[in-house]
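Case study 2.
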Amino acid sequence: MKAKFYQHIDPSPELLGIMNYREFDNGLAWKLAQLQCQPKRFSEQILFHPSLRLIFTLEGQTHLNYADRTITLNRGEGVILPNLGCEIQGNKSFYAGYRQKELVLFFEPEWIDNIGIDESLFFHLEQRAVPHQFKITGSIELLIRQLMHSEDHPTQWQTPIQNNLCTTLLLEVMQTLFPPQISGQQQKKIASKRLERLLSLLHDEQTIDWNMKQIAQYCCSNTTTLQREFKEHYNTTIMNYLRQIKMQRAKHALLGGALVSEAAQLAGYRKIECFSQQFYNQFGIYPSKIK
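Prediction:
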């Protein structure tokens, strides 16, 4: 695989900085630009040739007009432009007062045809042909850093490493935009395992005082999903179930000779009166009557 490298220093009187462009003979290319605008505002015409284009804004802002749509990206944001059909006229604007650092990946139709990726991954993009903006996640940021430092590798390894990283970046973005769909059966299986893990946690004395956020994190879920699944399966809330467990422990402690104040503390109550009333509501007897 052959590669060409171009470098532009101060690409125009209005834009100062450096622009590096790498092009491969398989239909893949990428560009890293660090530019600063001299006038208050500068706009240049762009011809978006047929390609799948990934843009990552690393510093400053990106201002584009694409297919009669205005796109603004802040630092830490990106967009995928799925122009796989015909050329599209647009423009890009720069503003004085800040440096813009931007990484752009270009995937030509021939690259997409030959790379062996399932065509269904691109179907949604091609059907709608509209920009899709996204946040740069931690995994995407890591791949970007690896690509930007890929020249640290020996020369003979740079081209395959850069191709691999560009492909991985595209797939990572696609998964961010269009997460894999999980079947109903798979969802039930995941929920079942999650509830088993949850029940084990709720009956563990070491974690009896955890809050819902801690519980959800332990179960690899979020509080809303976890509480909904638990309510559907057990017809009660997690916190109500946990209160019942604590009350059962308090009852066993009383039967073992513990004071009411000790049992109240074990159940998580500071006021004995509140504990006594809740104990009565659950067991039909006041804790002071337990012998």
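The chain has a mean pLDDT of 84.
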